[in-house]
Amino acid sequence: MRLRKPLPPIALALTSALALSGCFAASDTSAGAEASDGKRIRVAMMNPPRSGLSPLSDDAFKLSRWSTAETLVTLDDEGDAEPSLATKWTRTGDLTWSFTIRDGVTFHDGTSLTAEAVERSLTEAAGAAPKPRILDGVDFKATAKGDTVTVTTGEPDPLVPQRLSSPQLSILAAKAYEGKTVNPVGAGTGAFVLKKADGASSATLDRYEKYWGGRAKAAGIDVTFVPDGAARAAALRSGAADIVEAIPVSQASLLAQDQITEVPMPRTNTLYLNTEKGVFRDAGQRAAAREAIDAEALVKGVYEGRADVAEGLLGPALPWAAEQREGRTGAARAAKPADDVITIGTFTDRAELPEVAATLQQQLQDAGFEVKLEVREYANIEADALAGAFDAFILSRATVIDSGDPAAYLHSDFMSDGSFNISQLADTGVDEAVRTAEETAAGDARRAAVLDAETAVLNTDAAIPMLHERVIQGDAAHVVGSAKDPRERELITPDTYIK
Question: Which residues constitute the signal peptide according to the record (predicted)?
């Protein structure tokens, strides 16, 4: 499936703003509608597909948010696995898990969901190049037998069920894999069938009348991709859209407050300090930087109050973290700020970060540090950040990756062999704590181990969590039952409808 060449940003914004009212079908009619009752839901989404809606890419999250492609399991609010296309599972050995496949499910092309169909989808994912993130570095094999699928891993993995909740491991009909790319049109099992995907412009979905989970209340979904945030907000104000995702902070105050919902995201705005060289190699200097930062001023100023002050690396999107966190158990005493100039890097791709950097610069200078900023596009600064070229780096970082579990984030960002270790941290206590969390079975014990690892990181002052971002979702007054999901896996469910 070929994507249209994107318009330049200015042209795209103008096109979106001026022609938006013509982009959405009326909410109760559509050329693609097959249902005789219920209204259609018009949705304005931020990012257009980047990989032709392939479920093996980040586009998979769109398919999940539209309730068209489904996985073997889903996650509850705590991050524990729940049944979906698999009704139950059991660990049958150190390296093996058995999943029982739900009976009576049909794909949107009318073919039946079978263990062999599940094996095919998971095998395609395991052999993809590149692999879905959730399988990166994981030796993974699926084998069908009767109504079960056995998943075998190269090493013991207590998170296999959570991995299988990733939208990138959606189960699709055989027709999806007939070409060179995976094409999800008419190939899912969800409440809505994807009828048409018009490149980077729009998508059309109709209610699937034979959905195993019960008939959806809406007749269908009409999606328009609107990258410009002001244009998305305008669509909600004008009534051109029923649901709008990712409204910018700057636009939220222009909308009626009963039209917006702020959802805590598992994303933390953090100042990473270089522990390997430079000023912040000294623990006392790192402590001085921590004490100089006024996170509440950042939330009130840069984010207009639409963020949460960080108490740790893990925020309110993971409610168990706040409930169980005991906090820092020890840290170095703050030293007098050094005379050396410190360089803080960040990037322009997230609109708030340059302003965060400027505010932090002032706060640190007020405390006695001399600070220089270096701000570039992310693509042009990532390599230097990972190489330890800066004394400090400001990053907005997702703290739960596709499994819904924070251990992978803690490993990549803070273990000695972490692939995203901007702080250049090499601490045996942190390594041991994170490794323990990774090896602990899912559930309360694992969550407790994760918080122990968080405490170990905080005690080093290698990373200073400042705030947790929120995603702002817009719903017209006549929308009922849209999902407000911090993991951004759900949006339109079978129970979503227009009054």
Answer: 1-25
Q: Sort 498 into a burial class: Cβ within 10 Å, 0-12 / 13-18 / 19+.
A: buried
pLDDT at 26: 52
Best CA proximity match to 353, nearest among 345, 341, 343, 364: 345
Alpha-carbon gap, residue 365 to 439, rounded angstroms: 42
Pair 437, 453: CB distance under 8 Å: yes
Neighbour-count burial for 380-394, b at 16+ CB within 10 Å, e otherwise: ebbeebeebbbbbbb
Q: How far apart are CA 388 and CA 377, in angstroms?
A: 17
pTM: 0.81
Contact 334, 364 (CB under 8 A): no
The amino acid at 169: L
Rounded Cα–Cα distance for residues 385 and 383 (Å): 5
What domains can be seen in the chain, in order of their start residue? 1-68+190-242+479-499 (3.40.190), 69-177 (3.40.190.10), 264-471 (3.10.105.10)
| Number of CB atoms found within 10 A of residue 93's CB | 10
How far apart are alpha carbons 138 and 403 in whole angstroms? 13
Q: What is the pLDDT of residue 487?
A: 86
Q: How far apart are CA 252 and CA 259, in angstroms?
A: 9
Exposed, middle or buried by CB within 10 Å (0-12, 13-18, 19+), for 367?
middle
Beta carbons of 367 and 337 less than 8 angstroms apart? yes
| Cα–Cα distance for residue pair 71/113, rounded to 1 Å | 12
Torsion of CA 69, 192, 495, 22, to 10 degrees: 120
Contacts of 105 (CB under 8 A, 6+ apart): 85, 112, 113, 189, 212
Element housing 140 (H / E): strand 140-145
Question: Residue 203 corresponds to which tokens in the numbers above?
Answer: 């998508």
Q: Which residues of the chain, if any, have pLDDT below 50?
A: 1-21, 29-36
Number of H helices, E strands in the chain: 14, 19
Q: Is 137 left (phi over 0), alpha (psi -120 to 50) or beta?
A: left
Using only C-alpha atoms, the chain has a radius of gyration, in whole angstroms, of 23
Alpha helices in 368-443 (DSSP H): 382-386, 407-414, 428-439
